[in-house]
Amino acid sequence: MKHMQMIMEKKYISLSHTRCQEMGIDITRVFSSKILSDDALRRKLEEKRDLMVAAEPFMNQLYGFVKGSNFFSILTDEEGCILSVIGDEGILSEAFDFKMVPGSYMDEQHIGTNAMGTALAEEMPVQVSGKEHFIKAYHRWTCSASPIRDPEGKIIGVLDLTGYSELVHSHTLGMVVAAANAIEKMLEVKSYTEKLVLAKQHIETIIDSIPAGILTCDLSGAIQSANMHVTEMFGFRENEILKMKTWEIFEGWDRVKTTLFSRETFVDEDVYVNARKNKLQFSLSAYPLIDKEKGLKQIICVFKEVKKVRKLANRIADRHAIYTFNKIIGKNERFLLNIDYAKKIADSKSTILILGESGTGKEVFAQSIHNHGNRNEEAFVAVNCGAIPRNLIESELFGYEEGAFTGAKRGGNPGKFEMANGGTIFLDEIGEMPLEMQPNLLRVIEEGIVSRIGSAKQIPVNVRIIAATNKDLRKEVEMGNFRKDLYYRLNVLPIYLCPLRERKEDIPLLIDYFMDTIAKRLNKRKVAIPFEYMEHLLQYDWPGNIRELENIVELIINTESLPLDMSKKTTGVQPVSSRLEDSCLKLEHLEHQHILYVLRKFKGNISLAAEALDIGRNTLYRKIEKFNIDCSIFEHCSDLEHTYSPRAVLF
Known about the structure:
InterPro entries: AAA+_ATPase, AAA_lid_NorR, GAF, GAF-like_dom_sf, Homeodomain-like_sf, HTH_Fis, P-loop_NTPase, PAS. The chain is built from 27 helices and 21 strands. By secondary structure, the chain is of the alpha+beta class. The chain has four domains: about 1-195, 2-Layer Sandwich (Beta-Lactamase); about 200-305, PAS domain (Beta-Lactamase); about 315-500, P-loop containing nucleotide triphosphate hydrolases (Rossmann fold, 3-Layer(aba) Sandwich), CATH 3.40.50; about 505-645, Helicase, Ruva Protein, domain 3, CATH 1.10.8. Helices cover about 40% and strands about 20% of the residues.
């Protein structure tokens, strides 16, 4: 039996080598001849998200069996393009030198005989060891790979485990095959699960109704049934409630219908109920009842008591997330796909990495993911890694014991990870994390343990990590500023938020939203944007993205004016009523003007000004340098209301 197996192995290796010779593969090649650009890779990862989500837990489990033994695991798509890599630092460094990174193609055509490419070519599990690889660069390794098939039997990817040949055992390929089979089962279960969603919702509704108030209604809002908890919570008798409309009982009925008609979920939203004696706040979840034609027929409303004490404690400590996906504005197709993907991974325990330029809404997405997942009742702790001094970041993240250093608080102090236990920690500007601190963060991710400064005690924490950066972490790794193993552990479930200039169809929607919300907050009237102005806004590149757009709208509302083009040689503004014949937006000038206004308001205090502008201190320093602003002139400013005028701005 073993002899027959060896003959078969030699056969597929021999066939592969023949193919490589016919394709003219150079045996001295070091890395794949096809590696995707950043933009192409982002599109590829977006396209293969379902496979990555299904494979991620089993890929982690497979790596967990061999962790610390110089192995790494790779997931590719059906073309051999690497989607994800995790492994030990030592062998990852070598793989990184060979550009075995996401976006690199491992099929035979581009890198010769290897387990991933040959598994695709032969459509079966294979193991390729040492000199069986066609190129010499891979002769130190043994690769074991197995195809992954969808429920219809079509190959959609490959799972691989690679290590140094002397460390690979005979059962390695079997482990990979078992993991690939588990992924296939997961995909099959997911397919069946989607067909059973309606039945599942009905069962969950019955279960949820036991400790909560539940009522059903038709699409006109007429209440058709109500359980005993509703009468107790609202103070009405059952026969009274059955004569009422839902919109008479609680505020937001139209929003419930709109959400369910658009096939979105409406879960744990705070609403005000017009009870018999007074207005009360409850948490509302609404579920659709669908007929055979997939039409919405009825709605089930489930009311629960708001957990006031817990929410209040988290808000006092600033450990809460306020944004949800239904508050995110946009209709761009790629942006909507990002929202859909973020919802799918909201319950995942794995690390999420949000990438995108400054001002694209990375924290908004992080908060929305937290609120959409099963940790939404727990703490959400945000940490700006770029705003914490290097000498304080360890104590900030991991805490300290009493007497750990001079000035340490009596009784010690918990770190952000302890505060986030059970919930989510958001590590913004993760690319600014000092290199010497990165092993500590890696330990938390891999082992779920933190140790306070000055203590040997290990504290277990159950924290889901969401990281964000506007840096290219792959380049940071190449420059030695970021650890490879940490990068791959963070980049398990990546989300790339495109800049505003790539979703310009959303600009009018965002302007309307900001115009409405800011005008209400400032108690000022909204300003109409003329057509010619809107056209210019659509052509602008928006280097500050959504944050810049929000600041522009706030400035327009504050001044009730739209700025002139600087080419008109004026430092004033022109009232909207003059129809703005000569005006076109000079947004860089607007940004300069608004920064001067805020710096003057806070008398040159960088921290307060950055917080008011909703940008990082480093970002504000860059803008101050860009506009050549001397902050010392603001230190002795008197009352702002007597010194600032939009027609008398310093330049």
